[in-house]
Amino acid sequence: TNDVAKAVKEVKAGKVEFRVDKTGIVHAPVGKLSFAAEKLTENASTLITAVVKAKPAVAKGKYVRSATICSSMGPGVALDVAPFTVKAV
Predict the structure, then answer these.
(1) CATH class of the domain defined by 4-88
(2) Which of 2, 10, 16, 41 is 20 to 30 A from 29, alpha carbon to alpha carbon?
């Protein structure tokens, strides 16, 4: 970006960009170990909602099939995405 000041403000405000790899998997941070469980839940919900809202109109069927959360080098734990996807639609 050419507007560094704006980019710094957005990051400090909590803006997170997510990218999708070629297999359709989204990798994005939702928090840190020091965050409360409620904050992590809120962040995960916001991320899944943003992914569902970014769904292309031509995409058919169930858009978010599963979600797993893990630390950088830890094992993954499956999340129930149903409450998040219903709220997002």
Answers:
(1) alpha beta
(2) 2
20 alpha carbon, distance to own chain's centre: 11
**Looking at this protein, which amino acid is placed at residue 70?**
C
pTM of the entire predicted model: 0.69
In the block, residue with structure tokens 């995405």: 81
- HEC string for the chain: CCCHHHHHHHHHCCCCCCEECCCCCEECCCCCCCCCHHHHHHHHHHHHHHHHHCCCCCCCCCCCCCEEECCCCCCCEEECCHHHHHHHC
Say how far apart CA 17 and CA 10 lie, in whole Å. Answer: 11
